[in-house]
Amino acid sequence: MQMKTRCQRSAGAVVMLSALAIASSSIAGPEAAAAVPTFSQHVAPILYEACVDCHRPGEVAPMSLISYQETRPWGRSIKNKVLNGEMPPWHADPAVGRFTNERRLTAAERDTIVRWVDGGAPEGDRDQLPPAPSFADGWQIGTPDLVVEMPTTFEVPAEGEVDYQYFSAPTGLTEDRWVKAIEVRPGARAVVHHILAFVQNPSDARRASAYRQIPVGAAAEAAAARARERGRDIARPAGSGRTLIGTMAPGTNPQVFKPGTAMRIPKGSELVFQLHYTSVGESAHDRSRVGLLFADGPPTREVRAGAFLNAYFEIPAGASNTQVDALIEFTEDVEMTALFPHSHLLGKRWEYRLIYPDGQTQTVLSVPEYDFNWQTYYQFDEPLSVPKGARLEASAWYDNSAANKSNPDPTSPSRWGEQTWEEMHYTGITYTVKTGSNTSR
To answer: Does 15 reside within a domain?
Structure first.
């Protein structure tokens, strides 16, 4: 998967930034004045590349940063956010792995923004302003070939807890189609915490994954034994015949697959929306949708999406560094393309390690400062070649102490649950199988 954007804001988050205009600074001498970057020549190209996918009208960010007039009042706050690493938001360890959707500015880009603000934030010569990026109206992937919308509008109450909501809508496809880009968009962004979009196979067939989940811990082993007795698979939390194809959460990006790869949507299938709504003090009406861009034909390799988890844990009250693990073993040779770590308010750190059949271990993703407000699908710059028999270990650490300012209740133990004040240990994964073209598998 590929994405260009490096700046994504949390839906519904309230961003406290000063809107005071920046007073011009005095610069001594013509040489110093010439050294000050200008918006038109130096700053706008950075914003257009790193920020305006989100910081533009109609998107998740609280203000637009396309024009000089829109940007200048926020200059001091932009400088502060860039210096402290809040913007653009990116939480992976730079020493581990490379990712196509990195939202990290270079040292030179940060320095340019700082010197521009400190130098009075001049506009510069408007003739040097590059053309602003163009976007399809309402979509980051361009105009979709197919839009599937919730069948009805859901009214989100002004107050109170809202159970997860599920809606199904037909795709109307009369033949299998290959999809090269997927975007999930909320209808009322302020009240939508996340959306998971699944394809429901019309045959309800249970498609085998290219990995099996290995239970970790006595509770997980007992649950796995009970699941096997019922013919179920703990590595498939989405349910029979259902495949996760797209997500929308604070920090996620639309999915754009690399050339030569695509995801199959079967004819006659339905899309299933799982929505997590959050009341914000006033009622709202939501009718979310999914946009699909079709590939011209079958790809060289099919992108598969899956997930694995550990739902059998307890984080003791007051504990500040509880580790929870999950483990899968690959049953085929694959190329792993992305990982999506997900926990809630107690989550503080994630790490993923590949353990090869010869015993060698490689850390492939480290998120030392996990932030629930920024849900990121980490998309590898180059797919990771993973042989059959290799294992992927996912470790997360949780802070259930009073020192965690986001902790809803440090006096109570925390266990698996769907609501934000409960906890999760969940990993999304995308991959391709290396056996032949595998497009018919």
So the answer is: no
Out of 98, 128, 158, a domain closes at 128
* Residue 13, in any domain of the structure: no
313 and 202 together in one domain: yes
Contact criterion met (CB below 8 Å) for 305 and 428: yes
**Both 296 and 365 in a single domain?**
yes
Indicate which CATH number applies to the domain containing 281.
Answer: 2.60.120.230
User: pLDDT 10s digit of each residue in the chain, 441 long?
Assistant: 444 444 443 333 333 333 323 333 333 444 444 589 999 999 999 999 888 878 888 777 788 999 999 999 999 999 999 998 888 888 899 899 999 888 888 899 999 999 999 999 999 999 999 998 887 667 888 899 999 999 999 999 999 989 889 999 999 999 999 999 999 999 998 899 889 898 988 775 556 789 999 988 776 777 666 656 655 555 444 444 677 788 887 767 788 888 999 999 999 999 999 998 989 899 999 999 999 999 998 999 999 988 899 999 999 999 999 999 999 999 999 999 999 999 999 999 999 999 999 999 999 999 999 998 888 889 999 999 999 999 999 999 999 999 999 999 999 999 999 888 899 999 989 999 987 534 433
Beta strand pairing call for 347-355 and 211-214: unpaired
Show the domain range for 50: 29-128
Q: How many distinct structural domains can be found in the chain? A: 2
78 and 153 share one domain:
no
Tell me the whole-structure pTM to 2 decimals: 0.77
| CA–CA gap between residue 344 and residue 419 (Å, rounded) | 9
